[in-house]
Each structure stands twice: as structure tokens, then as C-alpha cells.
Write a structure and sequence with these properties.
alpha/beta, Arc Repressor Mutant, subunit A, 3 domains, six-stranded mixed beta sheet, five-stranded mixed beta sheet
């Protein structure tokens, strides 16, 4: 006789919670029903799963081994359920966007707002991911499109096109001594407190290599996990950050200043989509909204950097 789903559910609950009473409360059933299901499971498997001592159930070694398989089975069922839900949502018009963490706040929120103004009945799912996880999700078609950090080549599975090719900027805290400068070099930041993404970020290593070559040492470095963390710490006055200008826009309202860098520090991103025979209209419209917001953001950046340049000349 095969174990039933009810028997396995009761078994899993008892293994996690320790008693049949607690399992019954979670499963919204009675304690005798749980106890009966455990006995039926033992009969079906011909294993002794619990030792009953002093009114408590103590799992045997066989029970722990079986539990590992039950958990794996439940995980598989959850994945199937999640996949079915995603198929249903996509049929109803969901757009699934993956994004590098640097763009996952202000930029993507503005682009999504624009998209939903034109298509208010759409559902949007946004997932910030690392490059490796984004590429895997796109290949597995778990996402409809993704903005990936760095340059990514197209393949048989994925279409790729350049999304940004912009120079990084210096983000200065409120009242910084260099705030009136038109443009600075990394060497000008010698002796400054710096805010940086924790290693092994390749953009950080690049900036540090340029500063090392110029003999420019920071006073100290505060590390954080994301570009938004860098921006928040700069806005709080903890130091200077080197970052992409689109993300930096989110922090200008708190008194931070964006300055052009003389050093060549390109920040590349790539728009990646799974190859399909035909790209659905919702995906095309979403990409158009992303492109439009990118253009708007870069116009703001150019205007702001132009203002700092004019202020220096005056």
C-alpha cells in the first residue's frame, strides 16, 4: 500500500513540531486523526517511525531518513504549484522583469509606473538578481526580460542588446569641499572617506586600481552590499561614492551632489530576453517604457552635470 498525501503531511508536521497535538492544530484536524495517520504510514512503509515514550513521539533514524525524502517531494510539489501559478498569471498578462540590484529601486519603479499608466490591467513581477542568477532565470524562461550588469553576448537561447554605456560619477555628501567643482578625477579623492560595494565588485577594483596608480589613498573605506547602500551612506554624510549616475539620481533630493569624473569608468548594462518566435505586445511595451525612462534619466544626468560645470565656470 502506498503512503497517502494526508499521511505524509501529518508525518511532516509531527517531525517539524514534535507532537501530534501541535501538528493537528497546524493541519486543522484532530490529534486522533494525526495519530491514526502516523500508524497507517508505518503500516504502509513497514517502518517504525516513532518511539512512544512518556506520551511523546520520538522519531527514529528511519523517520529522519524518510523525512529528507518527504521534504524533497513537497518542495517539488511546491515548484509545480508555483510554475502553474506563473503560467496562469502570464496568461492573464503578467510581465516578469529581472533586474540588477542597482536599478531595482528608483529607476525600475519609474519605468514600471509609466508602463502601467498605459496598461493598467497588467500584473508586474520584479526580481532583483545577480548576473548569474538573472541569466539562468532568463534561459529557463522564468523571466520575460532582464537588465543585466556588464556586457552580455547574445546566444541561441537569448537575445541581447546594449542598455546603458555611461560613465560612472562621484556622489558627494552634503556640504563636501569638492561640491562646486565642474569635474574631478579619482586622484582628487586622496584622503577622503570612501563608500564602496564589498569586494569582489569589479567596478570597485577598477576605481581602486586607478587611485593606486595615482598614489591616492582613501582615509578609510566603508563597505556595503549594493549601490543603493552606497548612495544612502553618502547621503548620510559618511563619505564619497563612485557609482552609476542613474542610481545616483535617487539620492540628490537628500543633499548629495553628483560630479562628472575625468577618468574613463564605463558602466555597461545589457537588456536580455528569451528568444521567442514572436515577442508579446506587453513585453514590447514594457521594453519601450524601460528605454523611455533610461532616456529621461540620462537627460536629467546630463542636465545636472552641466549645471555643476556651469557653476564652476561662474
Amino acid at each position: 500500500m502506498r503512503p497517502s498525501a494526508h499521511q505524509l503531511e501529518c508525518f511532516s508536521a509531527v517531525m517539524r513540531l514534535g507532537t501530534a497535538t501541535a501538528a493537528a492544530n497546524v493541519l486543522n484536524t484532530s490529534q486522533p486523526s494525526v495519530t491514526r495517520a502516523l500508524k497507517q504510514l508505518e503500516d504502509a512503509t513497514r517502518l517504525q517511525l516513532f518511539e512512544r515514550r512518556e506520551g511523546r513521539l520520538h522519531p527514529t533514524a528511519e523517520a529522519r531518513e524518510l523525512m529528507a525524502q518527504v521534504e524533497a517531494s513537497f518542495t517539488g510539489l511546491e515548484r509545480i504549484g508555483h510554475a502553474a501559478e506563473m503560467i496562469l498569471r502570464r496568461r492573464r498578462g503578467m510581465v516578469r522583469i529581472g533586474c540588477l540590484p542597482a536599478f531595482a529601486q528608483g529607476f525600475i519603479a519609474r519605468a514600471t509606473a509609466s508602463f502601467l499608466r498605459d496598461e493598467p490591467d497588467r500584473h508586474v513581477s520584479l526580481v532583483p538578481l545577480t548576473v548569474r542568477d538573472l541569466m539562468r532565470a532568463l534561459r529557463d524562461q522564468e523571466l520575460d526580460l532582464g537588465i543585466v550588469a556588464f556586457e552580455v553576448a547574445a546566444s541561441d537561447e537569448l537575445a541581447a542588446e546594449r542598455f546603458t554605456d555611461i560613465n560612472e560619477i562621484a556622489l558627494l555628501p552634503p556640504g563636501h569641499r569638492l561640491a562646486g567643482s565642474g569635474a574631478i578625477s579619482l586622484a582628487d579623492l586622496a584622503g577622503e572617506a570612501m563608500i564602496a560595494i564589498a569586494v569582489p565588485d569589479p567596478y570597485r577594483r577598477r576605481a581602486e586600481a586607478i587611485m593606486d596608480a595615482a598614489g591616492a589613498r582613501p582615509r578609510h573605506v566603508v563597505e556595503t552590499a549594493t549601490s543603493h547602500g552606497v548612495g544612502s551612506m553618502v547621503a548620510a554624510g559618511l563619505g564619497v561614492g563612485i557609482m552609476n549616475p542613474i542610481t545616483a539620481l535617487d539620492f540628490l533630493g537628500s543633499g548629495a551632489t553628483m560630479l562628472r569624473l575625468k577618468d574613463r569608468l564605463p558602466f555597461h548594462t545589457t537588456l536580455v530576453t528569451p528568444r521567442r518566435l514572436e515577442r508579446p505586445g506587453a513585453i514590447r511595451h514594457c521594453i519601450a517604457a524601460l528605454n523611455a525612462e533610461r532616456a529621461t534619466s540620462l537627460e536629467r544626468v546630463d542636465a545636472l552635470l552641466g549645471q555643476t560645470k556651469s557653476a564652476k565656470e561662474d
